[in-house]
Write a structure and sequence with these properties.
Oligomer: single chain
Largest sheet: 7 strands, parallel
Number of helices: 25
CATH architecture of the largest domain: 3-Layer(aba) Sandwich
Shape: globular
Strand order of the largest sheet: 12-13-11-14-15-10-16
Structural class: alpha/beta
Number of strands: 23
Strand content: 15-25%
CATH superfamily of the largest domain: P-loop containing nucleotide triphosphate hydrolases
Helix content: 25-40%
CATH class of the largest domain: Alpha Beta
Number of domains: 4
Radius of gyration: 25 Å
Length: about 575
């Protein structure tokens, strides 16, 4: 049998171990997937059914590598729990996987998919009366195993019978974290405090005179979280790309619940953008929206606070200064904006807030600190997501052309690069002067387009601002000046902004059409998604946006750039590669 050249090395490996006959049995070359016994899944990029297979895999697998021809996904307990929590059945998933696979699914993989997905729901947390919580399992052996675990036992007040234990309500979140850590997630159906009532409506015409309605996918996202007000809803994460209207989903959920709400954001600019959106699209009066930040300390029916103020303390040994905010009002909902950036101390606080409804909003569940499991346990499972390219094809976000431009290393720093450690190598390659002629050419090509130059190193950004005569916006820029620059960019008065990581998230720049990344945070996939998000809002003329990544070829920066791109490749974006020969 003759196999496609693209899979030649794949089969050569198996031939050495005597597996050829087994794998050749039932071979279906018309399919794009190869499911392997180590729980990895290979996806053929140039296959006509690539998009169909990618959309399937995004529901239950995590992408690991994305070279030009074969993408590698991996099954994990967390990805399968999220699929189960989103009501995907293992049987349906396996049928779809088999339908798109070149070979029969290995028996051990089928068993593990069923095993991990069926663990969701085996442990259930219910409420009895006003204060009592009960952990229940139909499997007495599982309960016996958990009761013997030192870290779990201390949260169980009393064993009622072989399948049921009474739980200390104060440690509801801690219990969920510990059981998930040993491979047994808890389905939390204990419900929530109602919170103080606060009702409002969504406008049909915005305050600026534009027609407004919640889009179908936004409505579905809100419904998936709300779940008719039942205990099955009330806690979880909505995943939508930047520019797709996560704020509107949050507002629709607030409207459905009709309760006082605390909204936590990444910075004060993001908090004020939330306020602007609420005033523009809801009936909430301005006096009911309060800001709790380093600049103001006000609390109202809708309160906007920053992660920075929540995690403030004078010394590491002190308690958090503003923790009382969580009990200052009878909140019916807490919204965690950009939940993938949730600081570690907020996890500890959230573990004690499990009686309140919790909504996480994000463009990506990826956390660079690897704490996705804590998000699952403490905020809740993924409730809704939709492929970015699906929204693009429907016109809800702008189509984007991604291009990586590789430049040679500046000869004058080659010796320093050769003897440097990895971190210094990365800095030298990132700040490579050979990037400037390329950036200049890109700016000339897009001279009529609102453009962002984005980077990580402040010295490099200052040089960019000087070279291209553009305003510079960094974490050192006062909030008032930030808002002034953003507003001027939106009005078209400033065609080019040079920005640091401070502009990665929660910044509404709807007319930005071009982004040029001149340096990044090592291999941060999270950051790459956020930076692309700056230019995803639909353009008035329907034209595409452009995302350029300028990297130094044959250096450690090139390796990290490929890691950063993995998430976007999973969403269906492809990078065109250009090799630039610069002369300085």
């Amino acid at each position: 049998m003759r196999f496609p050249p693209i899979l030649h090395s794949f089969f050569s490996t198996r031939r050495r171990f005597g597996y050829t006959g087994q794998f050749a049995m039932g071979y279906r070359p018309e399919n794009p997937l190869v499911v392997q016994s180590d729980r990895t899944i290979l996806l053929e990029v140039n296959h006509p059914r690539f998009s169909e297979a990618r959309n399937l895999l995004s529901a239950f697998a995590e992408i690991e590598r994305s070279p030009e021809h074969i993408h590698t996904y991996r099954l994990s307990p967390l990805s399968l729990w999220n699929a189960a929590a989103a009501n995907h059945s293992p049987q349906t998933l396996l049928e779809e996987l088999a339908r798109l696979s070149k070979f029969p699914i290995p028996g051990n993989v089928e068993t593990e998919i069923r095993n991990w997905m069926e663990r969701w729901g085996k442990l259930r947390l219910d409420r009895e009366g006003e204060r009592r919580l009960v952990l229940h399992s139909a499997d007495a052996r599982l309960m016996k195993q958990l009761r013997s675990h030192k870290k779990i036992r201390k949260f169980l007040l009393q064993d009622r019978d072989s399948r049921t234990s009474i739980v200390d309500p104060a440690f509801r979140g801690h219990l969920k974290m510990e059981t998930a850590a040993v491979g047994w997630p808890i389905q939390d159906l204990a419900g929530y405090r109602e919170g103080a009532a606060y009702e409002f409506t969504l406008r049909e015409v915005t305050s600026t005179g534009r027609p407004f309605r919640v889009r179908d996918y936004q409505r579905l996202a809100a419904e998936s979280f709300y779940a008719g007000g039942s205990p099955e809803g009330g806690a979880g994460v909505i995943v939508l790309p930047c520019g797709a209207g996560k704020t509107i989903v949050g507002m629709d959920i607030m409207r459905r619940l009709g309760r006082k709400t605390l909204i936590l954001t990444t910075n004060i600019v993001a908090a004020r953008q939330w306020k602007s959106e609420l005033l523009d699209k809801t009936s909430i009066p301005e006096n009911d929206i309060k800001e709790y930040s380093g600049e103001k300390k006000e609390i109202g029916p809708v309160t906007l606070a920053t992660y920075q103020i929540i995690t403030h303390r004078r010394r590491k040994t002190d308690s958090f200064t503003h923790y009382a905010l969580f009990d200052a009002e009878d909140w019916g909902l807490i919204i965690y904006d950009e939940v993938h950036l949730l600081p570690a101390p907020v996890f500890r606080i959230t573990a004690e807030l499990q009686s309140r409804r919790r909504l996480g909003l994000t463009a990506t569940l990826i956390r660079e600190d690897g704490r996705e499991r804590e998000v699952f346990s403490l905020i809740g499972p993924k409730k809704f997501d939709v492929p970015w390219r699906e929204l693009e094809s429907s016109g809800w976000i702008a189509p984007v052309l991604c291009r990586e431009v590789r430049v040679p290393l500046e000869p004058s720093i080659e010796d320093a690069y050769a003897v440097a450690g990895d971190r210094e190598k990365f800095r030298l390659a990132s700040a490579n002067p050979q990037k400037w002629p390329v950036v200049q050419r890109i700016l000339e090509k897009h001279s009529a387009d609102p453009t962002l130059v984005i980077g990580h190193y402040l010295d490099q950004l200052r040089e960019a601002a000087d070279r291209f005569r553009a305003p510079l916006l960094t974490g050192e820029t006062p909030n008032v000046e930030r808002e002034r620059l953003y507003a001027a960019f939106r009005r078209g008065e400033i065609p080019l902004l040079v920005v640091s990581r401070v502009a990665n998230f929660a910044v509404d720049l709807p007319d930005a059409r071009v982004a040029i990344e001149i340096s990044g945070l090592f291999g941060s996939r999270q950051e790459e998604a956020q930076r692309l998000g700056r230019i995803l809002r639909p353009k008035k003329d329907g034209e595409r946006a452009h995302f350029y990544v300028v990297v130094t070829r044959n250096t450690i920066e090139e390796e990290f750039a490929q890691k950063r791109q993995i998430f976007l490749v999973e969403q269906g974006y492809r990078y065109e590669i250009e090799i630039a020969n610069t002369t300085g």
